[in-house]
Write a structure and sequence with these properties.
mainly alpha, single chain, Serine Threonine Protein Phosphatase 5, Tetratricopeptide repeat, about 120 residues
Amino acid sequence: MEENPDWLDWFGEAQLRSTEGKVLLRSGQLERATSSLVTSVKQATPRDKAVRSARLAEAHLAGNDLDGALDAANYGAELLEDKVSSVRAMDRLKEFSEQLRPHKAVPAVREFRERLQALSDAA
């Protein structure tokens, strides 16, 4: 088997699982998507963990797992507060936050949205 060319070094297992999860999510295969995205987040660099946590949150929400969705989204927010600076991660978390509108009366959703707003204001 051939070795990967140098220009493909960035495309490791974490990126593969992220892409796989995105495709599976779009095709409605939520359990498989969530599994791939969990693997991707675990294996990624801190910045990519923050970016990918939003898609993992989307997968959980699509599967009617609001708690799992908020756990993933709050993990991304925590990384942005403590370790990384990423406009892309912030944008993805904001997009996810919009998907939470139907759940805005839930205290944990309000807390996440307030946390994200505070992060955005601080940027």
